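Quick one: structure for this chain?
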Amino acid sequence: MRRLLPRRLAGDTAYLLLRLPLAIIAFCLVIAGMSAGAGLLVVWVGVPVLALTMLVARGFGDVERVRLRAVLGRDVARPRYPAAPPDAGWLRRMVTPLTGGQPWLDVLHAVVAFPVAIATFCVTVTWWSVTVFGLTYPLFGWITSNIPGNHQLPELLGFGRGYVVDSVFYVVLGALAGLTLFPVVRGCAVLQASLGKALLTGVAELRERIDDLTEGRNAAAHAEADALRRLERDIHDGPQQRLVHLAMELSRAQRELKRDASAAHATIGQAITATRETLDELRALSRGIAPPILADRGLAPALAALASRCTVPVELDVQVAERFPALVENTVYFVTAEALANVAKHSRATSCSVTLARIGDSLLLTIGDDGVGGAHVAKGHGLSGLADRLRAVEGELAVRSPAGGPTMIVAEVPCG
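Got it. Here's what it folds into:
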């Protein structure tokens, strides 16, 4: 951490010192271009002038977006600018840079960032100057007093009478400025960068947010539709057929009661066995439906019930006791149920572990087994619907399952 502070301080200082000349150039060009373009609109010459000004503002905006990474520590999104169709005429191409919201935000940034750059530049230079001058003040007196033939120079510079008192004062002032240098410079850099991020990437981030929400909504719809189709198919192929067969067996037993009681007894025994098998299959299918215990008692008892029904021994560790929104609890339950079902069917594991913990504003669900591995979320596999279900709540899924095992599934579900 101590090694990173000087590097961060140097980077923020360079960012702020270079921001002012860039802001001056951008401000002058944009103001001149907008003024000339607005004045010449009556003769249509102002249209290309305004378009050129927009392109200049866009260029300075692109430069600032690249520079923001040094302060914010991550790349920022570049918004999509309006583009003219390939077969558009010269007038359409000329007017296109003037359309849309982001070109005008680039112009606004060039204007608004100028006074902010002046303020942050002055604060940065002042703090650095006070720090350097204050800490090196005693050295100036010593150097000037040892210059041959300049015995009066220390007096002229103030290093004569009261020099010791002045040295203590300036050293203390320099030390205070040095101690606060990093937070002050860092605050100025973040202020300048936040302004650029808000004006130069706000539209892009809003659009990405809308796209993510739309994708999550579509993923949730697809996941629910797939789950309903799978549940319908499983009920039709399993319990429904068993119930039809059970009805036929009971009808046969009813007829056999009149002529052969022992045969009817055997038929009833087979019907009882079929009933138990049907109940077991219905319980397995009900894993895809939120049980009453989840709504009544929460995640810990519901996950314990899932673990008890799994054919593979499960070590359960639930580190949360509070209740969460129904959508969050249902998601965690369904992901656990689907993952345990895959462990039982495909993993050939001898043990499994399920851990649920809260880290910040997210629930972290970890499911591991010592099976043969090879699990992934590709279409047609058991885990394919989990990523879609998590995306619907802005969650994430990570699967690590090399051939030969072990398998580790980690699901992060926002709960804040």
